Design the sequence.
């Protein structure tokens, strides 16, 4: 039994060999290796990313020893990037670790092409102007970008890339694909061959609920003009009919049938979310289209034609009370239909590729198979350029947040994080950075924040005085616990983005360490 | 004045400066920072995925006196997230290596490791700490620490918790992309037991499915593990850490799966099912531990508002965090004022123990009884049992120093859902007809 990566066992159980391979191929760039950046990268190095490059121009100071685990006494006076890099290397010698002793701002200004070599850039503790410039550079070079920042007890995480399509979204709770409301001929035949009135009590209580429901639904439809139960009374009546079919109290299969009867009542066809993806303009494919959209185009065709309004069958069935033989036979029927649907989609994909002038074999079978299995769960994430969000945020949303009790602290933090950057640009230090200036800084920060709100179109809006005071109290401190938390969140998003599994966050995440009522803002 | 050339350059902003969104008794100043370093003592329970992160976070949040307890040794599968351990450390005790590594990198912090089970420590050991931070992976362990911490809690005559007896706990838990962090202030916020319904019961396959109608790979595995093993190895306990045992189960599961035509049995799945392996990654552990460490800092220093009181985190579908403010169960057996038991002064200790077995809310057998730290009767070890045996025939009233009422702690076995649990309970014993017992005591009873 080959166990090449035993140490990764606990994470392989989450994202599998393919996810791990994607991580190991990735190259990550970190800007600024204070605690926020260092903690983000530590998690990624432990996870086994291919390579890391740490960019930071500063030297290690005494204060860094109090908030950064990745530097120690022997690092004092030395390049922070070098020290952090060497500790990270210790954590996982399979990762290639490099450092660049340069300030990120300088690189952004003078060497934008530096960033094109990376899969993903983690940009920490950047101020607004640098964020905007870096965002443009990465968007142009098609490099994934994620911003992370900790500021006192607050934090900020934001992904930025044009589009991220997820096939393996792996939602925790997703309805199984049993098609009880729309059985195909083979499934109907299988159910027809089973006698619900079998005398043997053991056999009776081991009839799988799928069969029970397909038969009962069919009977109902025959006596109701081809329709399935839709009103409350009809659904109730249907359940009563199921109960009447029980011959003993311990028939778990019948209980399961009653509990799953809602699957018969569910509307046929696809979800509105999937419909939206099919309606997206990117589904009109051409030679520039990504593989994902080519697959979507084929899916759209399938659903409109051979699929009869349904996506390809997922193919697996949940466990249910049943004899082993019937269960295995039922499984085979679902597998066969899923395989048949897959073959149709494969043909459609190859045709589409030909039509747009691409090699019809350029999308591997395994990719198409995985796409079919996950067709009902596709997700497309898109992110605005940070500049657009900053200059023209979604005003109705912003106004809603400002007046909603649940959002007011989070949106206050969002505004103030931007206000402190404007403050710093004006006064050459962050508000509250120095004790002596505290009394002046508070009103200055307030007027800066109000000015910003007015610029955004929220005239007359105010922020809580206490929050403004608190922001000054923080004095741009980078606290380890907050940095570790924000870094943890950022690293998790990086993993989702690189493995292309699970769904990354949307919008802008504001960490609120005051009462932990953090929020996602869609601006 | 915040000193920019000092180690606590960043923390100073939070501890030395006054603020408005702070705890009610916040006293900013260098004394607060220094007191935190000198006097605050935090126990980290568990030195695994959460524990390693907690030690680092606490050491870098101004705490200089830490202790850590963990009974496990380092394994290779820990290395993807328990960053204080290296390949060469495999086999060594987690608590000891974790303590050593953090002290190496952060000067000034003292960490005392305890390589033992949490039950091996005297109960008073836990009372030594200002705050207890939990990085555990089992319900039983959490329940134990919770019971111990709550056993220190005392109530005044108005049934209000006495502040100086409140032992704060911060508890974190993770599983894949999900996690939780909560603050437990016994007597004020719900304790672990108050909200035990938050934890769903573990999935168990019906025996007849395993024996007669298996359908999934997991059924085949559990058949080999729970049924076939005993049939073939009767008497030999199955050891999940023994690779030969595991291989045996895997081979048997494969045979059974082939017999029934069931796909999907792999060695990895076998391990997962038998050991109930919970997938784990560095990022979730980092997030939850950091939240716990932050709350520990806030409780100790009042430098900000505290989490009130349960945070859940889910990063698998987007990002969801939510704070729920759960309420205490006033009748809670663990953090409540205790079950009130009215007794005659004539009752013997033995008769009292018999009563405990019959009491509907307790059903406690094999009880050991302590009062104000004194052993009235101990079931074990044999030496203590012999020493305290003579108390059994004495009157409880006398043994309790003729106090009209007081708290006793009873430790014994109770049965819930056909399973035996060891448990520690608090009882408010009130003796009938003794001076000083007023009618007020009958209000708010058990």
Sequence:
């Amino acid at each position: 039994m080959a166990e090449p990566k035993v140490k990764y066992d606990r994470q392989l159980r989450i994202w599998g060999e393919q996810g791990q391979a994607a991580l190991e191929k990735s190259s990550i760039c970190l800007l600024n290796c204070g605690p926020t950046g260092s903690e983000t990268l530590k998690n990624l190095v432990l996870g086994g990313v291919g390579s890391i490059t740490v960019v930071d121009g500063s030297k290690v100071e005494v204060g860094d020893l109090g908030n950064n685990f990745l530097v120690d006494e022997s690092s004092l006076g030395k390049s922070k990037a070098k020290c952090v890099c060497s500790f990270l290397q210790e954590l996982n010698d399979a990762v290639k670790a490099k450092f660049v002793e340069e300030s990120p701002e300088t690189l952004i200004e003078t060497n934008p092409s530096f960033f094109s070599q990376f899969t993903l850039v983690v940009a920490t503790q950047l101020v607004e102007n640098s964020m905007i410039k870096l965002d443009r550079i990465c968007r142009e070079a098609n490099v994934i970008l994620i911003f992370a920042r900790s500021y006192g007890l607050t934090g900020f995480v934001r992904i930025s890339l044009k589009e991220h399509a997820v096939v393996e979204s792996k939602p925790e709770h997703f309805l199984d694909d049993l098609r009880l409301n729309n059985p195909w001929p083979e499934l109907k035949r299988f159910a027809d061959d089973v006698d619900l009135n079998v005398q043997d009590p053991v056999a009776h209580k081991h009839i799988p609920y799928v069969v029970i429901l397909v038969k009962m639904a069919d009977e109902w439809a025959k006596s109701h003009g081809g329709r399935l139960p839709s009103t409350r009374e009809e659904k109730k009546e249907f359940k009563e009919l199921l109960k009447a079919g029980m011959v003993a109290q311990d028939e778990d299969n019948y209980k399961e049938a009653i509990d799953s009867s809602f699957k018969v009542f569910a509307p046929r066809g696809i979800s509105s979310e999937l419909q939206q993806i099919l309606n997206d303009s990117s589904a009109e494919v051409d030679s520039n289209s990504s593989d994902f959209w080519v697959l979507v185009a084929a899916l759209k065709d399938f659903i409109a034609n051979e699929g009869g309004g349904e996506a390809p069958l997922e193919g697996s069935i949940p466990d249910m009370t049943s004899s082993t033989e019937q269960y295995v036979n039922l499984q085979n029927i679902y597998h066969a239909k899923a395989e048949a649907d897959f073959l149709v989609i494969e043909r459609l994909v190859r045709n589409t590729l030909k039509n747009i002038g691409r090699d019809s074999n350029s999308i591997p079978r395994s990719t198409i198979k995985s796409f079919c299995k996950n067709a009902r769960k596709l997700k497309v994430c898109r992110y605005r350029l940070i500049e657009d969000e900053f200059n023209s945020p979604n005003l109705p949303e912003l106004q809603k947040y400002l007046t909603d009790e649940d959002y007011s602290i989070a949106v206050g933090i969002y505004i103030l994080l931007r206000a402190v950057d404007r403050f710093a640009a004006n006064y050459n230090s962050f508000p509250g950075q120095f004790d002596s200036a505290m009394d002046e800084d508070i009103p200055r920060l307030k007027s800066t924040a109000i000015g910003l709100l007015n610029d955004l179109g929220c005239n007359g809006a105010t922020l809580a005085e206490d929050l403004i005071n608190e922001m000054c109290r923080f004095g741009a401190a980078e606290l380890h616990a907050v940095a570790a938390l924000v870094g943890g969140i950022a690293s998790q998003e990086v993993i989702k983005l690189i493995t292309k599994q699970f769904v990354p966050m949307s919008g802008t995440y504001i960490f609120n360490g005051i009462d932990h009522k953090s929020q996602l803002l869609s601006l | 004045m915040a000193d920019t050339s000092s180690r606590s350059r960043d923390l100073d902003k939070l501890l030395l400066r006054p603020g408005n969104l702070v705890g009610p008794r916040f006293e900013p100043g260098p004394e607060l920072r220094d007191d935190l370093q000198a006097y605050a003592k935090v126990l980290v329970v568990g030195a695994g995925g959460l524990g390693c992160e907690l030690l680092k976070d606490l050491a870098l949040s101004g705490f200089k006196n830490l202790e850590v307890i963990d009974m496990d040794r380092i394994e290779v599968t820990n290395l993807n997230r328990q960053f204080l351990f290296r390949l060469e450390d495999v086999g060594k005790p987690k608590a000891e290596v974790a303590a050593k590594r953090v002290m190496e990198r952060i000067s000034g912090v003292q960490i005392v490791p305890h390589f033992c089970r949490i039950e091996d420590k005297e109960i008073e050991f836990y009372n030594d700490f200002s705050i207890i931070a939990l990085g555990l992976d089992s319900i039983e362990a959490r329940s134990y620490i919770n019971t111990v911490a709550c056993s220190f809690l005392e109530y005044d005559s108005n049934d209000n918790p006495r502040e100086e007896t409140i032992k704060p706990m911060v508890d974190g838990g993770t599983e894949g992309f999900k996690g939780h962090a909560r603050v437990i202030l016994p007597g004020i916020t719900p304790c672990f037991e108050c909200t035990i319904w938050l934890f769903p019961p573990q999935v168990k396959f019906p025996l007849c499915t395993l024996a007669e109608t298996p359908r999934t790979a997991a059924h085949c595995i559990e058949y080999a593990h729970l049924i076939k093993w005993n049939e073939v190895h009767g008497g030999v306990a199955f050891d999940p850490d023994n690779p030969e045992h595991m291989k045996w189960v895997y081979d048997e599961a494969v045979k059974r799966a082939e017999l029934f035509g069931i796909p999907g049995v792999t060695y990895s799945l076998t391990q997962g099912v038998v050991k109930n392996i919970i997938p784990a990654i560095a990022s979730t552990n980092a997030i939850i531990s950091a939240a716990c460490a932050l709350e520990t800092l806030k409780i100790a220093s009042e430098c900000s508002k505290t989490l009130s009181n349960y945070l859940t985190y889910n990063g698998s579908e987007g990002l969801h965090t939510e704070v729920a403010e759960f309420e205490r169960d006033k009748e809670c057996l663990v953090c409540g004022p205790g079950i009130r038991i009215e007794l005659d002064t004539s009752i013997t200790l033995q008769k009292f123990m018999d009563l405990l077995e019959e009491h509907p809310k307790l059903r406690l057998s094999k009880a050991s009884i302590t009062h104000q730290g004194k052993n009235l009767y101990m079931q074990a070890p044999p030496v203590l049992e012999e020493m305290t045996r003579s108390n059994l025939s004495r009157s409880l009233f006398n043994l309790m120093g003729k106090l009209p009422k007081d708290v006793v702690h009873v430790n014994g076995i109770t049965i819930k859902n056909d399973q035996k649990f060891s448990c520690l309970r608090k009882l408010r014993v009130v003796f009938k007809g003794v001076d000083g017992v007023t009618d007020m005591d009958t209000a708010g009873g058990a």
